[in-house]
Amino acid sequence: MASAATAAPADVASFIETFNADYAKAHKAYEDNFWETKMNLEGNSVDALTSSFNALEAFLGDQAALDAVRGFLARDEREIPESSRVVLRQIEKTLKCYIVESADAKAVREKAVGLENKMNGARNKLKPTYVEANGETTEATFTVLRTKIRSAAEESVRKSCWEATRTTGPFLLANGFPEIIAERNRFARTLGYEDFYDMKVTQAEGFNKKRCFEMLDGLEAATAPLLKTALEKLEKEKGADALKPWNLSYALSGELSRDLDPYFPFENAPEVWGRSFAAMGIAYRGTKMRLDLCDRAGKYPNGFCHWPVAPHRGADGTWHSSEANFTSLATPDEVGSGNTALTTLMHEGGHAAHFANIEQGSPLFAQERAPFSVSLAETQSMFLDSLCGDAAWLGRYARDRSGAPVPWALLERSIKEKHPYEVFALRGMIAVPYFEKALYEMPEEDLTAENIARVADEIEHKIQGGLAARPLLSVPHITSDESSCYYHGYVFAEMAVHQTRAHFLKKYDGVIVDNPKIGPELLESYWTHGSGEPGFLKMVENLTGKPLSHDAWVASMAKDVPSLLADEKKEYDAAVAALPNTGAIDLGMRAVFVHGDEVIADSESAGGYVEATKEFKKWVNANWPKTAVAA
Ligand SMILES: [Zn+2]
């Protein structure tokens, strides 16, 4: 409660309260329509989605609101208390992401957006093809091409699919991508930034391009020797052909996911996730979460977690809890679906726990769009899903339908097959920011299709040791305004995840799984601030006691297989011997399991979360009878 001594003047208080309420209303209207249309619910309306989206954009783009905020901030410091200033500064920071104040910049921006829409329109008509083993030419989506590169037994098919993914580059380059890069740079320079990359990273992360690449350069240098070792090992074990870009992922993929499948029954995933989070002391503070986990005709083909209500603490002390909508595309009796579902629940449920616990004076601290830091958001979800790779977690939670734990022999195989090659994913990840940096640093007269294609190949060679299995120009993030120049966010998040893990392992004697102190620690250091101060880098430093660095990540990758096996075996033995976690699950959340318009189970009417997961299991067993075999 605000005491009389620190209360804001009535006009400021009522401005903030009205702003918060209006924002919450516009945000919820859009997100409700988003959910209804994407889940294809009865009575959904694309027109209502468009008009609510425009209303939200108009609200965030309101110059009069920005002027009012600046007016308040300009007033005497003794008149406007710091608690109100914190909120006002956040409103200013957010509105500035949606308002372009100079007329010149506005014109350049509109040109860039127009070019991008034209390129995307053309891209939607792009129909890649590949040649089957029998010589037939077949059309396929990029998702199918990528799956085939990993799994097709015939080398000619893999090669043809990979070549098809390489056609995106020339297509984009012939359809306006070089002009888009030039216009984006012009826009950023009008606003005083070095280039578009510098603008994006500064706005999203609060540090500039120079700082961003100092950190990436350190990681690049530290992992170059690991890449060399991994490439040599793969060549020695599987022959030089395995290094070809269309063979690499195939050479690394084994039968492991099929053998592990029985230990991840799909229908148990929500219960396992709830148990694991509750045991770490994670609570959702009154959140209502809708979960639509299974695939069906007419459903949007990408999983996501969105928040129709971003939480905040009102000036009168009232807590406005969050509302979350979470969807995935599982087919419960398909091999691998249970493992995917569980990892996705740990990841997206991690995002939801983060956002549910942001406790600030406006929902603008807890909305996931700009200026929210990608690094900060992904650190939370990736930290929690990283547990799914730990023997300490697998020994407890990877259990088949009879309750038997995953055998050590499978985990041993997994470590031997995967650990020596982890560096490939890291190098594939950092290649994207290096490529985008090069793109936006090219002088405008050099921005030709040939030059851009050549630079992409050069960076693949330099960073990945040869042409990439996933060609840089086929990475979808690089084209759209929103997702371009932000891939470094995933890299810094992974760095922070390793540093956070190392910190907790040291502090808590090697125990993260089922440690009830972890949730409160995350809440205090990482979650409560949202997108306000102190910001990502400082939060990591405050929790772990050192500035963010690549040390912990590199050390974990460089650990040799025999020592890793010895350590993980100890963790596994202890986990299997531990008492099973079978108590009540109190997540402080109302969970509603749905399938489109059908409500499967609601923890409020079912009498608790565990009861709701029981109803969910029954529903899965009834609809996919193969899952009921050993139930
Ligand atoms: Zn995520």
What does the model show?
This protein is an alpha/beta fold and 631 residues long. Among the domains are: 10-99, no CATH class; 268-407 and 512-550 and 580-628, Neurolysin, domain 3 (Orthogonal Bundle). Helix content is 58%, strand content 7%. The chain is built from 27 helices and nine strands. The strands form three sheets. A five-stranded mixed beta sheet has the order 4-7-3-8-9. It has a two-stranded antiparallel sheet with strand order 1-2. A hairpin with a 5-residue loop joins strand 1 (129-131) and strand 2 (137-139). Helix 1 packs antiparallel against helix 2 and helix 11 packs parallel to helix 24 (551-558). The protein is globular, with a radius of gyration of 25 Å. Residues 1-5 have low confidence and may be disordered. Zinc ion (ZN) binds at residues 347, 351, 378, 381.
